[in-house]
Structure formats: structure tokens, C-alpha cells
């Protein structure tokens, strides 16, 4: 800020998993393999799946606990609502534990949801880098 201009030393280093050369080389090798495998109808989707591996599936599996937590939270809330009925036999300790569990479930669902979004964005960034590099090489 004091210098008024930016130098290359002011920029952060790119993480190794976002290296354009490595990602483009991997996608290009898988594309050439796909062209050899089926010369009439090569599929960019299959080449991309082989490039990315199981990562999209594992990211998608993060949606399962989020869904389960989002189902469980209102169920616990219905049990907690029984505490506020007249002549309720529920103890204060049980009501507090239900309330705390609702907060913990909300926190866990939020944490896992943000991890899912973050990893999805990173995966999209990797795909974009690989596709851009492949198009750049083609041009």
C-alpha cells in the first residue's frame, strides 16, 4: 500500500492443487485416452470424470449428514414444545438438553454445509482451470 504499486512478491503463491499446468496436463492426457478409446464419439464428461476421480462423489456425500440433521432438528423441536404444555412432566434438565441439542445440530449442519460449498467451489475452480488451459493450448 505504501509503495503504490504491486509487485509479484506482493501476491500469494498458488496452492499446488490449483497448478494450471498439472491440471491441464491431466485433463489433456485423459482427453487423448478418450479419443483413442472411442474415436467416433469421445466424451469430455468421461475425460473430466477420470481427471477429477471420486472427488465430486465425496463432496456430494456431504449432503447426506446435512439432510439428516435438517430432518432431526424439527423433530427435536417438537419434543421440546411438549415442555411448554400445561401439566408437562418433562424435567428442566431434559428441556435444556433438547434446546442445546437443537443449537448443536444447527451448528453442525452449518459447518458441514459450508464445507460442502467450499469444496464445491474449489472443484469448480479446478475444472475451470483445466478447461481454460486445454482451450488455451488448442487456440
UniProtKB/TrEMBL annotation:
It is a multi-pass membrane protein. It is found in: Membrane. It comes from the Eukaryota. GO terms for cellular component: membrane. InterPro entries: ABC1_TM_sf, ABC_transporter_C-like. The keyword RNA-binding does not apply. GO terms for molecular function: ATP binding; ATPase-coupled transmembrane transporter activity. Keywords: ATP-binding, Membrane, Nucleotide-binding, Transmembrane, Transmembrane helix. The chain crosses the membrane at residues 57-81, 93-112. The keyword Membrane applies. Belongs to the ABC transporter superfamily. ABCC family. Conjugate transporter (TC 3.A.1.208) subfamily. This is ABC transmembrane type-1 domain-containing protein. It comes from Adineta steineri.
